Amino acid sequence: MIAIIGPTGSGKTETSVKISDYLPISVINADSRQVYKYMNIGTAKPTIDQQNKLDHYVLDKVNPDISYNLNNFIKDSNYAINKIKSQKKTPIIVGGTGLYVWALIDKWALPDVPPDKDFRKNIEFEIHTNGIKYIQSLFVKEVGESVSTKFDLNNIRRLIRYLEIIKSIGKEKFLYSSKPKCNNNLIFGLDYSKDNQEEHITNRIEKMIGNGWITEVEMLIKKGYNLSHHSMSGIGYKEIYLYLCNEIGYNEMKENTLKRTFSLIKKQRTWFKKTDSRIKWLDSDIKSRDINEISKSILQYNKNTAQL
User: Fold this and answer.
1) Do 7 and 198 contact (CB within 8 A), yes or no?
2) Cβ atoms of 2 and 301 closer than 8 Å
3) pLDDT tens, 117-139?
4) Kindly report the CA angle at 281 between 280 and 286, in degrees rounded to 5?
5) How many whole angstroms separate alpha carbon 105 and alpha carbon 116?
6) CB burial class (10 A; 0-12, 13-18, 19+) of residue 224?
7) N vs C: which end of the chain shows fewer Cβ within 10 Å?
8) CA-CA distances (angstroms) from residue 90 to 12, 121, 253, 282?
9) Angle at Cα 132 formed by Cα 102 and Cα 214, nearest 5°?
10) How far apart are CA 5 and CA 101, in angstroms?
11) Domains in the chain and their CATH numbers?
């Protein structure tokens, strides 16, 4: 597989569009928030012009009140990959959700564990009674502190699902047997300097708000979506929702969105390590010569894999 990965705001989408000037490609979206319809600005979804220029798959898959999980993503992505290849194009995974990226690249064979309603009900009761720290501590205890750093401990819904799977098949199988590393891939990583990160992300969020992010959340609220829906817990969406409900002020809304974004970036850099030899890292301020070199690498990769 071929992928373009990196933290939020590193220019992955723009880079893929530029590559399409050189090669016949299509994109497999690997951003867990861009699967939701109507949530465009806050998820930095490809613009209409970008989508018209380059086909994007696993985008706008479900309404914001519908659950969408990793198994759904793998199924939809594999269907899209086969379709893209039948069109004689090259599929490229583009996104910053590490769980989605590595599951697809490393061909995780996930267990098809059915929902355990009683288990979920009990866990949700404990979270309601004791707070998010309850499930965070429970998960860390199950998988170990060092391993737990690879997971988003603020994603309650996903932690519940992980614990549900562990309860069914055991920790060892959950952590290791389904997750081999595949080295036969071409992965480009984009990132920016940590020195410029605060200014870069602050400007990015200001621009998104200026482009109508608050109006987008107002529209979602009018459609009946609220914080009981997982999609609305996304960075910025929750904060703007609370702001519109007069529960927090405008400045607090922006500050909390920034804090959560920085936390996400830290987590993304845990998923995509600079020490991972499988990833070819580039500066996010990508130049035309870089696009040309990436395109050449993709052509050579396709040639080599065709001979296998």
Assistant:
1) no
2) yes
3) 899 999 999 999 999 999 999 99
4) 120
5) 29
6) exposed
7) C
8) 16, 44, 41, 21
9) 75
10) 8
11) 2-110+179-306 (3.40.50.300), 117-177 (1.10.20)
